């Protein structure tokens, strides 16, 4: 009878070890859920960025307004007869 009790105790401890510490434990499941949530957030941010880039590509393909706006913003394009005004913040240089 003692042997049976000892074997059952060892089996109980082995299953408890795996439940709390080993592979597939509650701690690992919690860590994996947290990691999954972080990855889903990253995926959502990348999906938003992809949609924005797709809109920009479509805008650039559809007409000259998109190309012109991009050139004005990124390259400082001005048309003939236009005057460029740059306003500087006087408080910005005093830091």
From TrEMBL:
<keyword id="KW-0472">Membrane</keyword>
<dbReference type="InterPro" id="IPR007060">
    <property type="entry name" value="FtsL/DivIC"/>
</dbReference>
<keyword id="KW-0997">Cell inner membrane</keyword>
<protein>
    <recommendedName>
        <fullName>Cell division protein FtsB</fullName>
    </recommendedName>
</protein>
<dbReference type="GO" id="GO:0043093">
    <property type="term" value="P:FtsZ-dependent cytokinesis"/>
</dbReference>
<keyword id="KW-0132">Cell division</keyword>
<dbReference type="GO" id="GO:0032153">
    <property type="term" value="C:cell division site"/>
</dbReference>
<feature type="topological domain" description="Periplasmic">
    <location>
        <begin position="22"/>
        <end position="95"/>
    </location>
</feature>
<keyword id="KW-0812">Transmembrane</keyword>
<comment type="similarity">
    <text>Belongs to the FtsB family.</text>
</comment>
<dbReference type="InterPro" id="IPR023081">
    <property type="entry name" value="Cell_div_FtsB"/>
</dbReference>
<comment type="subunit">
    <text>Part of a complex composed of FtsB, FtsL and FtsQ.</text>
</comment>
<keyword id="KW-0175">Coiled coil</keyword>
<keyword id="KW-1133">Transmembrane helix</keyword>
<dbReference type="GO" id="GO:0005886">
    <property type="term" value="C:plasma membrane"/>
</dbReference>
<feature type="topological domain" description="Cytoplasmic">
    <location>
        <begin position="1"/>
        <end position="3"/>
    </location>
</feature>
<keyword id="KW-1003">Cell membrane</keyword>
<keyword id="KW-0131">Cell cycle</keyword>
<dbReference type="GO" id="GO:0030428">
    <property type="term" value="C:cell septum"/>
</dbReference>
<feature type="coiled-coil region">
    <location>
        <begin position="29"/>
        <end position="63"/>
    </location>
</feature>
<comment type="function">
    <text>Essential cell division protein. May link together the upstream cell division proteins, which are predominantly cytoplasmic, with the downstream cell division proteins, which are predominantly periplasmic.</text>
</comment>
<dbReference type="Pfam" id="PF04977">
    <property type="entry name" value="DivIC"/>
</dbReference>
């Amino acid at each position: 009878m003692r042997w049976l009790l000892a074997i059952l105790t060892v089996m109980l401890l082995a299953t408890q070890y795996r439940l709390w510490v080993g592979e597939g434990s509650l701690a690992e499941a919690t860590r994996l859920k947290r990691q999954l949530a972080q990855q889903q957030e990253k995926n959502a941010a990348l999906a938003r960025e992809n949609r924005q880039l797709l809109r920009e590509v479509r805008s650039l393909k559809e007409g000259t307004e998109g190309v012109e706006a991009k050139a004005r913003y990124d390259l400082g394009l001005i048309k003939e007869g236009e005057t460029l005004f740059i306003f500087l913040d006087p408080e910005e240089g005093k830091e």
